[in-house]
Write a structure and sequence with these properties.
The protein has about 600 residues and is an alpha/beta fold. Helix content is about 25%, strand content about 30%. It has a domain at about 515-595. The protein contains 14 helices and 40 strands. A hairpin with a 2-residue loop joins strand 2 (about 70) and strand 3 (about 75). Helix 11 packs antiparallel against helix 14. The protein is rod-shaped.
Length: about 600
Amino acid sequence: MRLMFSLLCIVLLVAMPSIAVSADLTKLPSDVTAVLHSDEHLCQRYVETWTKDEQRVWIALCRSGQFGESNGQVSNSSVNAVISADFLRTVLLTPPFRAAIGETGVILHNVQVTGPLRLSVHSIPNLVFVDSVLDDVDLSNATVHGHVVFVDCRVEKLDLRFAHIDGGVFFDGNSKQKTDPDAAESVLTFFAQGVTVEQRIFLANATVSEIVLVQAEAHRDVVLENIRQVHKPTPGADHSLSLSLMKIAGNISLSNVVMATLTMDLSKVDANILVTKSKFENLDFGRLSVGENIVFREGEFGPNAADSPFDFSYMNIGRSIYLISAVFHEPIKMLSTNIHRDFSVTGGILTGLDGRGINVVGNLVFEPVLDQSSTEGDVDSKFMPLWVPGAAANLSFSSFGRIVSPYSFRAWPRTVFLHGVAFGSFVPLALEGKFGHAPDEWLPQWLQRGTADKFEPEPYQAVASSLTSTGQEEAAVAVGYAAKERNLEETCDAKMVAKCLVLVASKLLIGYGYVIWLSSIWAAGFVILGALIFRKTPEAKMNKMPYGLIYSFDMLLPIIKLRERNYGLNLDSNARYYFYFHRLVGWLLGIFIVAGIGGWTK
């Protein structure tokens, strides 16, 4: 019967909603158990200094491994017992009491522990507190053969530095904090530098001064929910969430976390990092390694007093980075980060992006959301801007599989740097059937912005090639022509006279090879001009050639011979000097036509 009663108590502990964390007690480690302890004689043994409360607690722990339940229900109204930290140390560490407790540990409901609970360096079993009050819990360098659990508890300080925990760490803050925001704050300081946790780390519903998990190692997930920074600064605390140099076999999930600083630099996370509806003033993810995805969803980051950018440099991301409806009040610095799939921004606000040297194997996606309230007819006004005024995106020397965005400047900042950028194609993104502006209008302007301070042909060539491959010849011609116009402007400004003249001739004669039909207009003009000059010469009258069109044509385009005798006709008048020029124009026109058709002038 006693065994059955104990098992029933544990089932109730795991299932009861009254001590649920953010959803229910299924989040508690499944192997938190209490079993019947033997030897009733031992259960009646006390230390002389123990109080009556401590004696009651000992009898319950000795018999069933837990204290504080009544008929399967947990009382949340008041403290059932006040016990000292020394009493718990004796029970957990000193024979014969430790032997009676065994490795299954203790579960304590509705207790108040007075004094600091010092269990550092020692080896202890499962340690579970429910709806209890503690000051300082020190498990630094301890070995816990089970779980460390605090449900609906008020704890001032929890020290797990360099401890080894065979189970998980589960902390849920005071229930009053969840139901009454005006309740007096119970501020937790959580130190867990270098801790090794074989299962998950879960912290929820707590007001904290700082959380330190530097060099921590967890073989499953790290989850933080509903964590907020103390309203009044704590002396000596930097109010940061420090997750640097960690090794996490699962996910890191931060939901509704509000603190000053979040650092994850030099950490290694095998699965995902999920940051949802959270607020931080500073972010440092430098040299972070993530096996799958990083997701920022509906959060707000910055501004900070130093106006310092958020560091995402030199990261290695196994899959993708998603920024979804997230607001960044400071620029993102993402130097030489390697992303094996996509970097996607959907909605939200960006202040700037320094992505020099970034490598995105998949897609770079800028996706503004539609502005449902807009009634203006302008195409750009249909989208909410992704960038603040004055923002800049520096993508120099970066590479992307594809760039994906609508043809709208609401998806891009005013200043874009595309120097040395390489990408396979530019893919228009449709939002509810709207691509934005016409590509032959928008893409040249976008490329102009991206190479405003120094012309480089590679971005133009990549976009033109992408348009050609998708059958958008008109847009491809517009982009290619815009590139040659930029080249002409820069060449002539640099006083490169010869090259400038060649480009001017290419533009006038064949439209840089994109408007070959211009050459026919020039040819027709010179044929008519030559005919008008030739018909007035004595040789025209002598050879009965009153029009001279065929002669002018043969002299202009000697490759095509319409009449052989025209090539043996010598002019003695001053008209011969014009036809010297006439022939030179013909050769020049022919060279540019061949070069244009061959694509050498594009």
